[in-house]
Write a structure and sequence with these properties.
The chain is α/β, with parallel strands linked by helices. Helix content is 41%, strand content 24%. The chain is built from 7 helices and 7 strands. A 7-stranded mixed beta sheet has the order 3-2-1-4-5-7-6, with helices on both faces. α3 packs parallel to α4. The N and C termini lie far apart (51 Å).
């Protein structure tokens, strides 16, 4: 079974392209396509990248923000260093990890960011309803982190698996953002149920 997965991956266009162009994962092209369509990341922005390992999104985000910007990558797994990216190894659900994010921002003279990205994914069980529910759980963690660290009018990008819990989550997001769109990048595998929620114009009630 694993040997078949390896063969399929090696035939995958974006996997081969990532190898050729020096990206750490094929997921890099998903963020490139998202940003080309929605312009969520701009030069000079500060970005938090949740679930960043092995680093494909952090690579792209670092190039987009340039030297005037900054990227903080967060993952429970380790990640090899990327120039221009500050990496925090920790669980995004833990207060200790959030305090580490705040400390890194303070070192850079910041207390907030322009963009929060989340490509976090649950361990796939093969039971669709369970995997969908876990993806929404992770998405809600990303939403909470965005509410803590995003500047007014900031942007949030979250991966989820499509399913019956999605509409209630979208309703919650629309309470905090002026624009909320669903997008499926061309680089997503055809067999995948993943979609990306693109949230722009952070403007939470009471803030």
């Amino acid at each position: 079974m694993r040997s078949r997965w390896i063969r399929d991956r090696k035939r995958d266009y974006y996997y081969r392209l990532a190898k050729a162009e020096g990206y750490r994962s094929r997921a890099a092209y998903k963020l490139i396509q998202i940003n080309k369509k929605f312009g969520v990341i701009k030069r000079g922005n500060a970005v938090i990248d949740l679930g960043c390992s092995p680093g494909g999104w952090s690579q792209v985000a670092s190039m987009l923000v340039g030297k005037a910007g900054m990227v903080i990558g967060v993952d429970i797994q380790g990640m090899l260093q990327i120039p221009g990216v500050r990496f925090i190894r920790g669980d995004a659900e833990c207060d200790d990890t959030l305090e580490k994010i705040a400390a890194v921002l303070a070192e850079e003279g910041r207390d907030s960011v322009d963009v929060v990205l989340s490509d976090m994914s649950p361990r796939i069980s093969g039971h669709y309803d369970y995997d969908h529910a876990n993806s929404i759980y992770l998405a809600r963690i990303a939403h909470r982190i965005a509410k803590r660290f995003l500047k007014r009018n900031g942007n949030l990008v979250i991966k989820v698996f499509d399913g019956d819990m999605l509409q209630d989550f979208l309703k919650d997001l629309r309470g905090d953002f002026s624009k909320v769109d669903i997008y499926r990048p061309k680089a997503s595998r055809k067999s995948s149920s993943e979609v990306y929620i693109i949230c722009r114009g952070f403007s939470p009630k009471g803030r």
